[in-house]
Amino acid sequence: EVQLVESGGGLVQPGGSLRLSCAASGFTFSSYAMSWVRQAPGKGLEWVSAISGSGGSTYYADSVKGRFTISRDNSKNTLYLQMNSLRAEDTAVYYCGGIENYYYYYMDVWGKGTTVTVSS
Amino acid sequence: EIVMTQSPATLSVSPGERATLSCRASQSVSSNLAWYQQKPGQAPRLLIYGASTRATGIPARFSGSGSGTEFTLTISSLQSEDFAVYYCQQYNNWPQAFGQGTKLEIK
């Protein structure tokens, strides 16, 4: 069964850091371009970041550039999102998603999400 | 940066009727446009990619059309399970972008 499971969310103070993980199973992880998408409470989807299957190419939304870092460990079938200098507006459910496609990074497999709350 | 605009924000339709949802890009995204369905408390589900190709397991009542800057998602005969929020996403340019969503509600 194809599955993505996010973890690492929680409550963090403004200015703090958090690392999210996304564990993949049931497919060849290294063949999948992976992304992070977030959803603030009661709001729509916001694309955050993406990474190629090899990890050699990374992309970021302007709202997180310089604060968030996406990475992956294909030997562990795991995607990461290191989040630094967190702000209240980063509060959201964070989803990981992926697609087996070299060029186009839409998402046909999704995790259930992990919640990040930034508050003092 | 490309901005995606969906209309209407809310669409009220009766079961069995047709629903037409629109998505507009601020500049051409070719056919690199996806549609997702999201129900409360759930992750999004891919419906359409390449503007018009149904994802695996998606019923034929869902269809997508358009290219360039204007796109449409049509649900031909609404079932009870189709009432949800729908998002378009452009993946032609970085950064990627989602529309703000259309809530499809029961009339």
Task: Give your account of this protein's structure.
The complex is a heterodimer of chains A (120) and B (107). Chain A is built from no helices and eleven strands. Chain A has strands at 3-7, 10-12, 18-25, 33-39, 45-51, 58-60, 68-73, 78-83, 92-99, 109-110, 114-118. In chain A, strands 2, 4, 5, 6, 9, 10 and 11 form a seven-stranded mixed beta sheet that branches. Chain A is globular. The mean pLDDT of chain B is 97. Chain B has strands at residues 4-7, 10-13, 19-25, 33-38, 45-49, 53-54, 62-67, 70-75, 85-90, 97-98, 102-106. In chain B, strands 2, 4, 5, 6, 9, 10 and 11 form a seven-stranded mixed beta sheet that branches. In chain B, strands 1-3-8-7 form a four-stranded antiparallel beta sheet, with no helix packed on it. In chain B, 0% of the residues lie in helices and 50% in strands. With 107 residues, chain B is mainly β. Classes of the chains: A mainly beta (120), B mainly beta (107). The interface between A and B is medium-sized, with 22 and 25 residues.
> What class would the helix/strand composition of chain A place it in?
mainly beta
Radius of gyration of chain A over all CA atoms, rounded: 13 Å
Proportion of helical residues of chain B: under 10%
Radius of gyration of chain B: 13 Å
Largest sheet of chain A: 7 strands, mixed
Strand content of chain B: over 45%
The portion of residues forming beta strands of chain A comes to over 45%
Order of helices and strands of chain B: EEEEEEEEEEE
Chain pair sharing the greatest interface = A-B, 22 and 25 residues
Query: What fraction, in percent, of the residue positions of chain A are helical?
Result: under 10%
Topology, number of strands of chain A: 11
Mean pLDDT over the residues of chain A: 97
The span between the termini of chain B is 36 Å
Provide the low-confidence segments of chain A as ranges: none
Determine the structural class of chain B based on helices, strands and strand pairing: mainly beta
What is the tally of helical segments of chain B?
Answer: 0
Shape of chain B: globular
Overall, the morphology of chain A is: globular
Low-confidence parts of chain B lasting 5 or more residues at pLDDT below 50? none
